[in-house]
Design brief:
375 residues, conserved putative lor/sdh protein from methanococcus maripaludis s2 fold, Elongation Factor Tu (Ef-tu), domain 3, Helix Hairpins, six-stranded antiparallel barrel, four-stranded antiparallel β-sheet, 23 strands, disordered N terminus
């Protein structure tokens, strides 16, 4: 007799396994629909409103110096430089100054051996005495009609010749003493005691360090904006970032034939500074060729154009955009001069202007900064 109870048990086990398998398949699907439903519910829920605002970066309308400045390097030189030369030949007997010494006008710099000239001077003075006596005797004879007029004239010419000879050798003897023509500083001493020099050989170089100048070359495009007496700033490499004041002393009338640059002489007055400025220092002269001081300016990124007109977006107190027409002037180093349409202190959007509209609500995310440009 068949075992019906065992067959019924197998059927129960099979049904139970099918039921469990279907349950395991339906649970993940059910959870998926729950998550989707929850996400849709959160999206449609209330919001603080900031998610719909566009974030912008603003720049404050402020006053800047947009002047055009040209920086040119040039070495410092003395305005007065004098080369002291020997006015007569001879051996150097004495030197009274050397490099770095300050001398006053008329002080003795050096003495040459003038014994030969002094000997010639004494001979000329002796001959002059003889000529004077001969002239006096001849004059008396001529007055008494003892000699002719030609003999009298001959004695007179001999006296004049003797006098000029004395003057010549006296000058030769005096030329052996070398004097300073101006008050200055000795920059070069080119001889030593015992050196034999010839006429016009250089002995010293002296410079007036009270008035120093720079002579940089400037292009014709810039020199047209410069004038004599104009003040400017100077920096010296040795003093790093410290600024000094100079002035344009003169502008040379013609350009250099090779460089095509105009020489501009800039004056430095030592009395105006506590620093000791020496010839040879390298200086950087800052020429202001287009004066634009204390002008309203905004970044280039703040301007847009519509039908040929310049616009900016001003952020008002209600965090809304207001498009405004402006008049612009000079553009320099990433900044634009505003001559009309804006007030100092207003905030304008600086960047991504294509996505903005008049009246749009915005969220100010930060301030615009341009490092190293006019700030």
């Amino acid at each position: 007799m068949p075992n019906f109870s065992r067959k019924m048990d197998y059927r129960k086990i099979y049904c139970n396994s099918l039921f469990r398998r279907n349950c395991f398949l339906r649970i993940p699907i059910f959870l998926f629909f729950i998550i989707i439903s929850a996400s849709c519910t959160n999206t449609a829920g209330p919001s603080d409103g900031n998610d719909r605002l566009r974030s912008v970066v603003v720049s404050e309308v402020k006053r800047l110096d947009l002047s055009s400045v040209r920086s040119v390097s040039a070495p410092v030189i003395a305005y007065k430089r004098i080369y002291i030369t020997a006015r007569t030949g001879g051996q150097v007997m004495k030197l009274f100054y050397e490099e770095g010494d300050r001398v006053r006008e008329g002080e003795l710099l050096a003495s040459l051996d003038t014994r030969r000239q002094n000997a010639q001077l004494r001979n000329a003075e002796s001959a002059l005495e003889d000529s004077k006596r001969n002239y006096l005797r001849t004059s008396q004879l001529y007055e008494n009609n003892v000699i002719s007029e030609s003999e009298y004239e001959r004695a007179k010419r001999e006296l004049e010749k003797a006098e000029s000879e004395v003057e010549f050798w006296r000058a030769e003897a005096e030329l052996g003493d070398i004097y300073a023509p101006i008050s200055a500083v000795v920059s070069d001493k080119l001889v030593e005691v015992g050196t034999t020099v010839s006429v016009n050989e250089r002995l010293f170089t002296i410079e007036d360090h009270d008035l120093l100048v720079l002579r940089p070359g400037v292009s014709e495009l810039d020199v047209a904006f410069l004038s004599e007496g104009q003040e400017l700033e100077i920096q010296f490499d040795v003093f790093r970032e410290e600024l000094f004041t100079g002035s344009i002393r003169r502008i040379f009338p013609a350009a250099d034939r090779i460089t095509r640059l105009f020489t501009v002489e800039v004056e430095i007055d030592q009395a105006d500074t506590d620093r000791i400025i020496r010839p040879g220092y390298l200086a950087r002269v800052h020429f202001v060729t287009d004066q634009r001081v204390d002008v309203l300016a905004v970044p280039n990124e703040a301007l847009s154009s519509l039908e040929g007109e310049d616009l900016v977006y001003v952020v008002n107190d209600n965090q809304q955009l207001e498009s405004r027409k402006v008049e612009k002037g000079t553009e320099r180093d990433g900044w634009v001069e505003i001559t009309g349409g804006l007030q100092e202190g207003e905030n304008v959007v600086a960047g991504n202007l294509d996505a903005l509209n008049d009246g749009m609500d915005v969220n100010v995310a930060g301030k615009f900064r341009r490092y190293g440009f006019r700030e």
